[in-house]
Write a structure and sequence with these properties.
By secondary structure, this protein is mainly alpha-helical. Helix content is 81%, strand content 0%. The protein has 4 helices and no strands.
């Protein structure tokens, strides 16, 4: 059950920091970090959307296949969301810290 709690916690952080990534992209701060963070979040959303489309429209789960694949998606999503959270911390630091150029 800890995996589910970690997933929901990291998911809430990811949703909250989407605005930070967009702001950093608009201000052209932090290089490619916001792009990578948004891409990782997009991969998680695409994975769950693909799972939902497959098991609701394309195939039918006869056994525990749908539940085990969903649990696998949660377990695989946690490292991606954790990396995205670390990248978002770096983006926030670059947004807050003034740039000192010689």
């Amino acid at each position: 059950m800890a995996w589910v709690y970690a997933f929901w916690g990291l998911g809430l952080i990811a949703i909250a920091t989407i605005a930070v990534d967009v702001l950093a992209l608009r201000r052209k701060v932090a290089g490619r970090l916001p792009v990578v963070a948004l891409a990782l979040k997009g991969l998680v959303v695409a994975g769950f959307a693909g799972w939902w489309i497959y098991f609701n429209y394309l195939g039918a789960a006869d056994t525990w296949e749908d539940l085990t694949s969903f649990a696998g998606l949660i377990v695989l999503s946690i490292p991606l969301l954790l990396i995205a959270a670390v990248l978002d911390v770096l983006v926030i630091r670059r947004l807050v810290t003034p740039v000192s150029r010689p």
